[in-house]
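RECORD TYPE: protein structure
NAME: Metallophosphoesterase
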Amino acid sequence: MAKVFFTSDHHFGHKLIIDFESRPFADVAQMNESMIASWNTVVAPEDKVFHLGDFSFLNKEDTSSIVARLNGYKTLILGNHDRGRSRNWWLETGFHEVSEYPIIYKDFFFLSHEPMYMNKHMPYVNVHGHIHGQKYEGKNHFNICVEHWDYRPLSFEQIRDSVVVSEEG
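PREDICTED:
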C-alpha cells in the first residue's frame, strides 16, 4: 500500500547551505547524492511525497535530473527560493503537482513552506519547513526540514504519532 511522506528544504545545488546549516557534506555533489539516496531509502516508487519548498538552486536540466531520480509522486509547495521560477517551470522539471499556496491534508495537517500562525483553536498541525535547524515552539507546529530528519522524508504516520504523543505527554 502506498504511503505519504513529507519533507522540505533540500536546497539541491546550494553550496553555501552546507556551511549555513552545518550540513555534514564535503561538497555539493556529495550533498546532492546523499540526499537522493536518503529519500529513496524510505520512499517507494508508488508513494506520494509533499515537498514543502526550497527544492533546488540548479538549472532546469540538472533539477529535472534530480527529480527523475527521486521515488514517488511528487507535489511541491513553493518555498521562498522556489518562487522566482514559475509554477510551469517546476512542472516541467518533473513535479506532478505544484502549489503556490499552503494545502490542508486529511483535515489534520496544514502544509506550508514558512511556519504559519496557528492559534490554539485551530484543528491543524502546521507541517512546515523554512527555518532549517531551528525549532518553532508549540504543539501545533512540526518542522519537516531535512536537517532534523537525517535528510529523509517522514511518513504521515510518523508525524501524526509524534504530534499525538507530544500532546498526551
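COMMENT: The longest helix spans residues 28-42.
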